[in-house]
Amino acid sequence: MPSLAVARAANAAWNPSYTPVAVFVGGTSGIGQGIAEAFARHTKGNAHILIVGRNRAAATAILTRLEKPPASTPDLTREFLHCDLSLIANAKRTAASIVARFPHVNIVFLTAGEISLKGLDVGEEGVDRQMSALYYSKWAFIDGLLPGMRAAAMAREDARVAAVHTAGRGGPIDLDDLGLMKSIGGGMAGVRKLLPQLASYQDLMAEGFAERDTDISFMHLFPGTVDTPLLRKSPSAVLRAVHYVRYLLFPTLLFRAMSIADCGEYQLYALLQARPGASRAGGDGEDIGMGGEGDTQWGEERRLLWAHSEKIVGAVIV
Length: 318
Known about the structure:
Elements: H1 4-13, E1 21-25, H2 30-42, E2 48-53, H3 56-65, E3 78-82, H4 88-101, E4 107-110, H5 129-154, E5 160-164, H6 181-184, H7 187-212, E6 217-221, H8 237-244, H9 246-249, H10 253-256, H11 260-273, E7 277-281, H12 298-314
């Protein structure tokens, strides 16, 4: 596993000959914030940076603190795009607007998602709203940005995308419950089935896109334990309470939790080191191999989940 010093040095050595376009979906706090700040620092501000999310005030504060563009290129983009990912239509609309403005898209991090104990909450698009934010809208964002990433790859520029979730924590998926409606609505027993499947969904998403665009890097990342405001900002009162007593409930957490800044360095390192195709990385940016080990139905699960995702996302008209 690389040390933090190695990750920082590698990130600092990345020196593209073009001005990269970077999109941070869910970059208004936590892990996304750390990655965006590391990216701006190592490009010395010489990049177009777009933060996508719901919290304009938080995004504006982050953008204000980022490394400023060089004096020679003061017109580089520093922008917040409001997007509520609980609706797939918003993801599709926002991705299309980005590609319309930036013909090449180079770096994409998708860290959006929140923890809730609300249970099943089916929105107007016919899917659970939390599932939309954690999976379908990520899928839609990647799909919508593909024209820009393909153009970047054709020009021999970086074309890299990473979904941050729980790489390495997956399990077999229930092909009779694609979309996880039964699991989400199944109480605590459903939650136990839900979490490993969500991890596998992210693996299979990366693999599915990589099968179709072999010149682009598609990653699933698991940063591990990071000191973020995820629980504090949860819509669940129970989970918000857990945030304030987390070190009493989990006494080793204080010593294991990585800072947002260090996490940003490691996750940026992981994506910049990735080769074209699908891959996964852990908390120190180390390659952890591919998913599906021991799952004889993995290939079939990938095929059926792709068809399901294509159908759900394609049915949303914007």
